Amino acid sequence: MTSSQKSKKQELPPTAWAVLGLLSFPGERTGYELKKWADSSLRFFYWSPAISQIYAELRRLEELGYAASVRSGPEESRAKRRYGITPAGREALAGWASDVAEAGPPVLKHGLLLRVWLGHLAEPDRLQAMVTEHLERTTEELDSVREAMAHAATEPDWAFPVLALRWSERQHLAELELTRALLADLEGVGGQERQAGGDAPTPG
Question: I need a surface site. Which of 127, 184, 188, 203 has the fewest CB within 10 A?
Answer without folding.
Answer: 203
